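[09:14] KT: can someone run the structure on this one? pasting the chain below
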Amino acid sequence: MIELEHIIKNFQADTNKNISIHAVNDVSLKINDGEIFGIIGFSGAGKSTLVRCINLLERPDSGSVKIDGVEITKLKPRDLYKARRKIGMIFQQFNLMPSRTVFQNVAYPLTNLSKDEIKNKVRELLSLVEISEKENNYPSELSGGQKQRVAIARALANDPTILLCDEATSALDPQTTGAILQLLKDLNKKLNLTIVVITHEMEVVKNICRKAAVMDHGRIIETGDVFSIFSNPKHEVTKNFVRTTSNLSKLEILLRENSPMVKLNPGEVLARLIYIYAEVSEPLISSMSREFNLEINIILADVEIVSGIMIGGTVVIFKGDRENILKAFEYLKARNVNVEVIKGC
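[09:31] RB: done, structure tokens below
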């Protein structure tokens, strides 16, 4: 288990004016063994600094970091070195040594093994990340996805129990990102590896994580299972993240441009509906139209899978008697549908 308690990390922004930046501001967090946990935030939120505090690449100004009950912030240098060997890390830019082959890059951390042991270990790792055929190639001869596979193999060289991923897919195209995320999920299952994913992409969190924390200005503003965060975000920053992954985010563009699609006639109401749990598959729109004698015009629609469960959303214009529209809203809420009135009513 990873336990962060009241972590604070400041950086001095201007030596003359003695101005400090609160990169991480009183963060406490627990990540269970074998979990894939996401930490998400916009640029400058403090997420990369926080993940570096886990293995003390950045030493917190105050607070404690515990790994399996051991407070590594209090360890002596030699003991800290041993503890760090059980925490692997991969980065956005791969950090491979260009003058060394794939084999040599993966072998680099293996300082305490014989030549035969190193050969066996490296080939085992390359097979694990499905890039065995590239062992004699140099990084310049690899694609971005292949480089990241090599970086993952190197991070696993010392049999870590924790893998930290700092924006590990940000430099990759969507198809390659999907392949790397699937690899991380497979490694999590095969090795019972605890994986901490740092990202600014909600799509990544949605695809790989079970739990997540949202950071803003150095603080954690929301945490929980990914399904709950997606289906019912509490904080405005989280809501903005969720909207970036949905086709429904186009509503803001339509409103800003005063599009004819969202212009209302008297008696009409524009609303955003978010379906959660199984109700996403029920014919609610047609049922409401019949039961409450309403005309319902669908402007935008989207359905996605989060943690194996469907979440759907629509942006619609209701036309009809105001009392019947309000009854329709109650009908929706009784079926776990969040109703957000945008215009009208």
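[09:33] KT: thanks! Residues 103 and 209 are 30 Å apart (CA to CA).
[09:34] RB: yep, looked fine to me
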